[in-house]
Amino acid sequence: MAPRRTPRTAAALLLVAGLVGLSACSPGEDAPGPAGSGAPAVPTRTFVFANAAEAPTLDPATVDNLETSRIATQVLDGLVAADPSTGEPAPALATSWRVSGDGLSYTFALREDVRFHDGTELDAAAVCANFERWESLGADGSLTPFDTVFRTNARGTAPVYEDCTAPSPSTVVLSLATEHTPLLRALTQPAFGIASPASLAAGTQGEHPVGTGPFRYASGDGASVELTANPDYWGELGDIGALEFRTIAEPELRYVALRRGQVDGYDQVGLDSFAPLARHGVQVLQRDPYSVSYLGINQDVEPLDDPEVRAAIAAAVDRGAIVREHYPDGTRVADQFLPARFALDGTDLRVPSYDPQRARELLASSSYDGEPLRFYYPRNTSRTYMQEPEKVYADIAAQLVRAGFVIEPVPVDWSDGYVEQVQDPDGDHALHLLGWNGGYRDPDYFMAALFGTPNGEFGLAETSLFGVVNRAARLPDGDDRSGAYVSINNRVSRLLPAVPLAHPISAVAVDGSVESFPLTSTGFEQFNRVRLDPAG
């Protein structure tokens, strides 16, 4: 890719002098399995991967966060996994399943002779213990991945989940109160990784997860998590014996760490790094667009409850310029919230196009009277949906000011609970920058989380919209369901709870020791599927 601005700076090169890390992937002979056991050799090579932000917890059941989910994917297996090519559910801890004719019962046959990292045996009771815990997590009103999928905290909507039973040690039955077409796809998320009941009872899942996956937790703090290969793994161990996830927030420093051999790969390649990496022959792997970035509008803050004010905001924002300046080539300007891969584009989209004169006219006829609008934006992070949030904020704020708005900037470090602040129903955020990264291959993942229930992010109180989103999840795959999501796209574009900005691509860079890297659109790559050059 052609560089957009001046490549990495000398200052960035000097800053990296303070980085201390493991050497790049070091070759070594695989350790043999136990004598006479016939077990596969346990790999001994080390791999270091740089994340763009810290994982706020290692428990994926409590947050929908890329870094948490990526680490959890290595440690926890689910009943089903996403097929790498199609995203459809494939066997994992469950070898097979069947669905009752009424769609209300799912029966899973568990894989035999699987043990958790603590040595305890996987059985149906352990699986149900996880479902019982997930159901209890939202008792305080918080919205967890389980709650989003099963609608357990959706006001005005009956919960989908009924119970989990274990008719035999190798059989799990999930019972639903109503049909839910996305269920099996939703269960491929890391949030539904099965943890050891003993670790759940100890309450340590957020710091020391214990699963059945190809890697075991070894040590870690907020900035680094170290895993080791699980010699008792039921599947393929791969080439990596020691895996570290290291946090490097600045994109320039991630680039320099790779070039200096301090990491073997990193996520969120910065815009200025594409061309230098290409010149050095470094592999850069691009994910297909499977996320959306947006400018959120909180209708609980007056006068943003006025449709003319929201339309003026949308008309004032030059989305095309934002994408050209702050996203990698191949990123699409967004006019709706579902990525293109679903092919469910609205047929009557009403998001205003960039028109600063129209924005001023709308503002003049609206209820806006010069009130400062508190505009939250994150600092010190790169997200799959937004590489340069500070710069995106600066451009959008300038465009809004030119249209006649008064903007009060509110910068918040990502690690200081930015997401929680802009989703707080009692918060004072008027505008904010955020996005949503796809977690499984179904439109409900986007629509349910964003528009399926009242939330503190948008201050949206459209009960009928919540109803149609939840009804769409019950429809069988086919024309009727597709048509429902097209209609929802149209409706959301008229309500303007947020201005969609972009459907971005994101990229991973890996060094020459990597023969192949199992890139996924979700970012939940499985590192036991990384293939390393035998020569190192």
Could you outline the blueprint of secondary structure elements for this entry?
Blueprint: H1 10-15, E1 45-51, H2 66-75, E2 80-82, E3 89-91, E4 94-99, E5 105-110, H3 124-137, H4 145-150, E6 161-168, E7 171-176, H5 183-186, H6 197-202, E8 215-220, E9 224-229, E10 240-247, H7 251-259, E11 265-267, H8 274-279, E12 283-286, E13 291-297, H9 307-316, H10 319-326, E14 332-333, H11 356-364, E15 372-379, H12 389-403, E16 406-413, H13 418-422, E17 431-437, H14 444-451, H15 463-474, H16 479-495, E18 498-503, E19 507-510, E20 514-516, E21 531-532
Parallel strand pairs: 1-10, 1-11, 15-16, 15-17
Antiparallel strand pairs: 2-3, 4-5, 5-7, 6-7, 8-9, 9-10, 11-19, 12-19, 13-17, 13-18, 14-18, 20-21
Give the structure's gist in a few sentences.
By secondary structure, the protein is α+β, with helices and mostly antiparallel strands. 27% of the residues lie in helices and 21% in strands.
Describe this structure in words.
With 536 residues, this protein is α+β, with helices and mostly antiparallel strands. The protein is built from 16 helices and 21 strands. Strands 8-9-10-1-11-19-12 form a seven-stranded mixed beta sheet, sandwiched between helices. Strands 14-18-13-17-15-16 form a six-stranded mixed beta sheet. The protein is globular. α9 (307-316) packs antiparallel against α11 (356-364), α14 (444-451) runs antiparallel to α15 (463-474) and α15 runs antiparallel to α16 (479-495). The two termini are 27 Å apart. The protein has helices at 10-15, 66-75, 124-137, 145-150, 183-186, 197-202, 251-259, 274-279, 307-316, 319-326, 356-364, 389-403, 418-422, 444-451, 463-474, 479-495; strands at 45-51, 80-82, 89-91, 94-99, 105-110, 161-168, 171-176, 215-220, 224-229, 240-247, 265-267, 283-286, 291-297, 332-333, 372-379, 406-413, 431-437, 498-503, 507-510, 514-516, 531-532. It is 27% helix and 21% strand. Mean pLDDT is 91; it is low at 1-37.
